[in-house]
Input
Amino acid sequence: MTLSGRVWKYGDHVDTDAIIPARYLATSDPDELSQHCMEAIDPRFVRDVRPGDILVAGENFGCGSSREHAPLAIRGAGIACVIAASYARIFHRNALNVALPILVCPAAARETETGHALEVDLERGKITNRTLGTTHEAEAYPAFMLDLIRAGGLVPFTRSRLATGTFDDLRKHA
Output
């Protein structure tokens, strides 16, 4: 699965309240949440983000509360994936639960700037900065995680597996 898009770059310790302010948490609809994504730190984000864009951040991205609203808002805004130097554990888990691909790559996070063009190969863990002509390696996504992302997240993936009885192939990953 290869993604490509324009970068939105943020710094260290971007918390879930900066991603989606608490006053908007009465809904879990990604389309509604996306209308307020990142507005606390970048008012132009909602206006200018395009489907397929890529969010890049520094250390501890997604720290704060354990709500799934933050990755839902990011995904709803059209962000194809997030690349950061590191993530808060709960954000990492929630992102995967809602089918928002994330990669850990401190080097790519350091060198990438807003407006750069990136290409991300999730199957190989390869991040290519087309603007700079550089490449970085992150941990590749295993096939079953790509299936989870393609299914739309943990809940649709599980429903599909229950309906077809195809959990046996996942036992080797447990």
